[in-house]
Specification:
Elements (H helix, E strand, L loop, with lengths): L6 H11 L4 E5 L5 E4 L1 H7 L3 H4 L13 H14 L8 E7 L5 E13 L2 E10 L1 H15 L9 H11 L5 E9 L1 H8 L1 H19 L4 E6 L2 E7 L4 H14 L4 E3 L2 E3 L2 E9 L6 H17 L5 E3 L2 H22 L8 E4 L6 E8 L6 E6 L2
Parallel strand pairs: 11-12
Antiparallel strand pairs: 1-2, 1-5, 3-4, 4-5, 6-8, 6-11, 7-8, 9-10, 13-14, 14-15
Helix pairs in contact: 7-8, 8-9
């Protein structure tokens, strides 16, 4: 404890009085005994108004009982849980608004009594910047919808604990719009499509943009296939009318792949993979349709991957043979040409090759 008669005591008081950091002192009875000019500026109370008042004048109402109990415990035990630490809390301004502050609390003994000191700084700008960064990390800047990170967080929180449905949407014909009308029109189209999907889904689902022309819709609890089918029907209907952009009427459709939890997966990765396979199937069927995930889709994908791998290995090892079927002239029996295989395996088309 600093001796009250020590010359340094006056210097410390002068330093705190002129500090840009709000400095407040209170006794064991929670009554304010010191209040510097920075505290006046931060909280809107003059020193005359604050000194003699309980600290609760700057404590939000919902936190006052906990604060009073903490002060009482600290005064009785001689230790304060927050002493020596810097924490972010909400404080109350004289006008009734709550402001985020950084609080450093200290406690000491003076004339046999527990005394409390608090240094407080306004961190509204820092909090605003943090919230902005948090928003950017989870928001698609083009459409203002949640992005892939936000969807992953939602799936992580819900997958495996509650029934849910995940719908992946890929726009049909978007690349043609981008290539013919330009990226600025394409960007506006994506924004308008996102707005229509969100309106169609309403409160029944969580809409996100994953990137490019791919969107996602997640629903929880109400995940009966008929219910999900109703949502996809509303989405299809919302995109039927044209989008009026760049002086043209633009028609766009979508394909939808659907995965259900827990049947089709219990982790975000499994659900995204299953929905993506269902979307691939929908695109393969011509687009503008919905497809629910089925185990057979996974089997076909695995076979296709395995066949592709085996073909690449065989090509690298020169294990292919090219065989021709002779074409014989029936009139005189001479060799007129050959037929060779051409195209993609399986179902290769035969191509005639004439001999010179």
């Amino acid at each position: 404890m600093l001796d009250q008669t020590h010359p340094a005591h006056g210097r410390y008081e002068q330093m705190l009085a002129n500090s840009a950091t709000a400095a407040i002192c209170a006794g064991p009875d929670n009554i304010i005994i010191s209040w510097n000019s920075a505290a006046e500026k931060l909280f809107g109370f003059s020193a005359d108004d604050a000194i003699g008042q309980p600290l609760s004048i700057i404590i939000p109402k919902k936190q006052r009982s906990a604060h009073a109990a903490g002060i009482t415990r600290a005064a009785e035990s001689g230790t304060a849980r927050l002493a020596g630490r810097s924490v972010e809390i909400l404080a109350l301004h004289a006008n009734g608004t709550e402001i985020p502050v950084d609080l450093s609390l200290s406690m000491w003994t003076e004339n046999g009594q527990r005394m409390f000191g608090a240094l407080l700084r306004d961190i509204t700008d820092r909090k605003t910047a943090h919230d902005r960064l948090e928003h950017l990390a989870h928001c698609d800047l083009l459409t203002s919808l949640p992005n892939r990170n936000a969807l992953q967080a939602k799936l992580t929180a819900a997958a495996g604990s509650v029934p849910l449905a995940l719908m992946l949407l890929d726009l049909d014909g978007f690349k043609l719009v981008n290539d013919t009308l330009g990226h600025s029109v394409g960007d506006q189209l994506l924004t308008d499509v996102g707005a229509r999907i969100k309106e169609a889904v309403g409160r029944d689902g969580y809409v996100a943009r994953l990137g490019g022309d791919e969107f996602a819709v997640m629903t929880v609890n109400c995940v009966h296939p008929l219910y999900v089918d109703q949502i996809t029907t509303r989405i299809f209907e919302s995109l039927q009318s044209p989008f009026e952009l760049a002086g043209q009427s633009i028609f766009i459709g979508t394909s939808i792949g659907i995965a259900m939890s827990p049947a089709d997966g219990t982790t975000p990765e499994q659900l995204l993979s299953s929905a993506d396979l269902a979307l691939y199937s929908a695109k393969g069927d011509g687009g503008r349709v919905r497809r629910f995930f089925a185990k057979a889709m996974q089997s076909r994908t695995e076979r296709r991957h395995r066949l592709g791998s085996e073909l690449r290995h065989a090509l690298a090892r020169q294990q292919f043979e090219l065989r021709y079927q002779p074409q014989v002239c029936l009139k005189d029996g001479h060799l007129a040409g050959v037929e060779g295989n051409r195209g993609k395996f399986p179902g290769m088309a035969l191509d005639k090759m004439r001999l010179s």
